[in-house]
Description:
Blueprint: H1 3-22, E1 33-38, E2 45-46, E3 53-54, E4 60-63, E5 66-71, E6 76-88, E7 93-106
Antiparallel strand pairs: 1-5, 2-3, 4-6, 5-6, 6-7
Amino acid sequence: MNRLNIFLWVLCCWAVQAQVDSSKGIAQEAFPQIKGYVGLVHPLYTFSSEGGQPNFRDYYIVGNPWGINIWKTKKFGVSFEFTPFLRVDDRSSKVSNVLFHPGCCIV
């Protein structure tokens, strides 16, 4: 076997062992829990005081949300999200808007 096959075989064995170890006991969840996320936002249409304009025509706007969720209990938490929007056209690219989006998470 070549090195890649050996590496993949070891990786599969490790994954199976980790799955078996995690299923042995059910652990209680501890709170508070902090979880983060990152994503991409592609707006389809932009509204402004100068009038609306669709994305992808004269320019391209993309947002990159970064967030953190703080779960206080299994059913309630708070969320903080920060999203810079980047506008790219023929001549330049710049941050056009920044969104700060706090909120609460209720399950």
